[in-house]
Write a structure and sequence with these properties.
Blueprint lengths: L2 E3 L6 E3 L1 E4 L13 H13 L4 E3 L4 H4 L1 H8 L9 E6 L7 H14 L5 E9 L1 H9 L2 H10 L3 E8 L3 H10 L4 E5 L10 H10 L3 E5 L13 H7 L8 H10 L6 E5 L3 H10 L10 H17 L19 H14 L2 H12 L30 H12 L4 H13 L4
Parallel strand pairs: 3-4, 3-10, 4-5, 5-6, 6-7, 7-8, 8-9, 9-10
Antiparallel strand pairs: 1-2
């Protein structure tokens, strides 16, 4: 495992961090604790020493899960990060309430890296006026938190103001080879580093959309490389190539993903990709931009929907249509998955959207979700949907789907 130092405290952090937002789940949606614990501990046994979670992950169950997964001496092996749900904060007393509750949920007496979660310009002004600086200073002084930071999903213009408004230890931004100019972007990464902040990276694989599955047009470009790497290795190495990056978080769902990511760390040196290799990545990024219709990373911040629409699944199916083709199969998959047949659940169709607007403002990518759901419904619903659902029921019953 390779390690990089946090600028302000000299902590040696593994270049790969374990993000506890996409843990393996059971059929009822609950965390598969046995499988997830094995994955977390395997990563730590192989050098990962930074674990990241948050109040809302897995509908509030990620933090309690980690309390169990980090038992038996594993808590002492890692730096633990979690986040204040700032959108739920109405007073400085609320800040104390959430932090104290998180300490209890995580079964720890301190948080090594505590972030104000999912800031944009307007939400920063709100918590700033509520006294977030005083709260963070107090929490650091009494030892409940060691380092203070923020995660960011706003515009590039507001990012600098937030960096400059408080003496932060670190920040967390979305960054990958498709998002150089989205949100904080490369300019934000470089600015934060210039101000002495450590930088944690989220969505390096864009919720897995950059690596599974890979369109044939993209794979053709990767295959031109002189040094052969998997798409996972290319995506992660591109991020690690930036010396301003401290740690890259990956939300892992399967043991194989832990293995792939650990293998990628072997090449995670800063400034190691050649100009020719960087140009190859640029070509891949341009190809993805041409193929991808909806800029969704699958983070699920828009969920739950009051009308039970599975928004990320709708968008994933829509994007897959344009990236990979196979409309007949995707029409069937849409009917089976979103119709609740494969999940044994209620319907989650895009057409169930009633334009209530609850999701607007929650999306880190600032997507116009209701309008996009209309496009999904137009593509996958209409005449024949019920027939496809019936056919899917038969296929599923015969275990052949």
């Amino acid at each position: 495992m390779l390690y990089r130092k946090m600028p302000k405290n000299e902590d040696e952090l593994s270049i790969l961090g374990f993000g506890a937002m996409r843990l393996p789940t059971r059929s009822d949606g609950s965390i598969d604790e046995e499988k997830a614990t094995q994955m977390v501990r395997y990563a730590i046994d192989n050098g990962v020493n930074y674990v990241d979670t948050a109040w809302p992950y897995h509908m509030g169950e990620s933090e309690p899960f980690l309390a169990h997964a980090l038992a038996d001496g594993y808590r002492e092996k890692v730096k633990l990060a979690t986040k204040m749900p700032q959108w739920m904060v109405k007073s400085q007393a609320d800040m104390d309430y959430f932090l104290d509750a998180q300490l209890q949920k995580l079964n720890t007496d301190h948080i090594d890296y505590y972030l104000v979660h999912s800031l944009v310009g307007s939400s920063w002004k709100t918590v700033r006026d509520l006294g977030i600086a005083e709260f963070l200073n107090k929490a650091k002084a009494d030892g409940r938190i060691i380092n203070a930071g923020f995660s960011y999903h706003g515009s590039g213009e507001d990012f600098k103001d937030i960096v400059d408004d408080y003496d932060w230890d670190f920040c967390q931004i979305q960054y990958n080879f498709l998002d150089e100019n989205i949100q904080a972007g490369t300019k934000g990464l470089e600015y934060a580093a210039s101000r002495g902040l450590g930088v944690a990276i989220m969505e390096p694989l864009r919720g897995g959309n950059l690596v599974d599955p890979v369109p044939s047009e993209v794979m053709d470009i990767w295959n031109e490389a002189e040094i052969k790497r998997s798409p996972v290795q290319w995506a992660l190495c591109w991020v690690w190539n930036h010396p301003e990056v401290t740690v890259v978080l990956s939300g892992m769902t399967e043991p194989s993903q832990v293995e792939q990511n650990l293998k990628a760390t072997e090449e995670g040196f800063a400034s190691s990709l050649t100009d020719k290799e960087l140009y190859l990545v640029e070509r891949v990024a341009e190809k993805y931009r041409k193929l991808m219709k909806i800029n969704c990373t699958g983070c699920r911040y828009c969920m739950p929907c009051p009308q039970n629409v599975d928004i990320p699944a709708c968008f994933e199916t829509y994007n897959n249509l344009f990236m990979f083709g196979g409309k007949d199969r995707l029409m069937m998959m849409y009917a089976a998955k979103l119709g609740g047949i494969l999940r044994g659940a209620e319907r989650n169709f895009a057409s169930q959207c009633v334009q209530c607007g609850q999701c607007l403002g929650l999306c880190p990518q600032n997507l116009s979700i209701p309008d996009l759901l209309e496009k999904v419904a137009e593509e996958f619903e209409g005449p024949g949907l019920e027939e496809r659902m019936e056919f899917a029921k038969q296929l599923f019953a015969n275990d052949s789907f």
